[in-house]
Fold this protein.
Amino acid sequence: MDAPAELESLAAKLRRPEGALRDLVCLGPDQLAELERAIDAACVRQQLDVAGALRKALPQPLRAIVLWRVRTSVR
Amino acid sequence: MSGLAVRAETNKLRGLLGVSETALPFLAGVPEAQLRRLRDAVHERLFAQDQPVFRRLGRIAAWLPFWLAVPLCHLVGPMLTARIVGEMPARRAILSAVRLRPAFVAEACMHLDPRRARDLIQRMPPAKIAAIAVEMLRREDYATMGRFVDFISDEGIRAVLDAIPDEAALLKIAFFMDSKNRLDHVVRLMPPERRARTLLLALDDTTSLLDEILLLIIHVNYALKRELGDLAAAQDEAVLERIVMTVEQQQLWSDLLPVVASLSEDSQRKVVNLPMLRRDPAMLEHILHAADTHDLWRITLPLLLFLDEPSRAVWAQVGALLPRDALERATQATLVGELWLPMIDLVRRMPREQQEIFADILREYGKVDSELYARVAHCARRNGIDVELGAD
């Protein structure tokens, strides 16, 4: 049986094969969508928290230099 | 699936997602193992977002001398420290970690994935671990403590046990532990008298720790189940009935039956003959249903041996409600466990219709093992089963 589209979307978002979330098929489409929204919100919150902590710890322009240096080295 | 373990997992997932304790109520119907896989996936997703940046910062931080790294940790704060430390080699990170205040580390742990910091945790001196645990306890951050216990060495665990005299706190931490195998080991590290104190505290009706102690008893090994279970069974009937009521409310019978089966004979006798089980046949129906659906007949049927007369009558009354396929499974377990006497004693108290079904199941056995059939049929007739079993 094919997994519902909501489960496929959730698996893609979490970078997991659908099989790893197979027991979530007991949830309805609305519930899966609500779960995905909660995960999205947590991701956004986490990004804001990290950005806020960086802003607090490193005043401009030091922050911009550090992040630029880090990001260019990552590439 | 333990309902309690599912509740602990949903609490952890809600904490990670930053939603309220009542949000996502439908998660209660998801198996515990799936919830844990989901939580791991969400955790990795959250960490993956900025991981390249923190990996690079971790590489840079690894070159800093500790006398500079420590003030920098204070400058960037606990969250960023946790993320950077998670990307650093443990041998470098430990130099700074041991020099940070326990309150700072306790807060950083909230943002640290213990799986990424496994080596760092292993290198942490026990005294430092104990100091951090005390700080977490002050914040009542049991969930974070539970996540880390899996990765702490035995010496560290002993130091924490010594530093936390409050048994209620230990139970709350244990409730959130990820690895149930580790839970068993940690309970073993506690001196027996402390285990007993913890259990008695949880059974006190002025505390609200029944869920925590049940989760613990359910997940420890046979010997500890027996030790703690016997101690619980030695308490007043009122205490036992409170446990039974909690198990019934949360439908934890499939978890509790193995605990009851591990008890000493005296304790088993006391538990199975609780007046509450006679007063409420619906509860007994749930027990038999759990035995059937979780393949627990082999440990449930021996309990029949300890039933007193009034209880046998109620068990037979409820057993008579079992459908034929459940009775077939129970009879199969009777065969495997050679429990014909208690089973026949139960069946003889059932209505004639059920006796006929039982006899029919026996006749099926007789087709493949006539000797067994003859023996059981003889035993059934001698025990007054009012039904023609056929030739033997």
About this structure: The helical segments of chain A are 5-13, 29-57, 62-74. The CA atoms of residues 1 and 25 of chain A lie 11 Å apart.
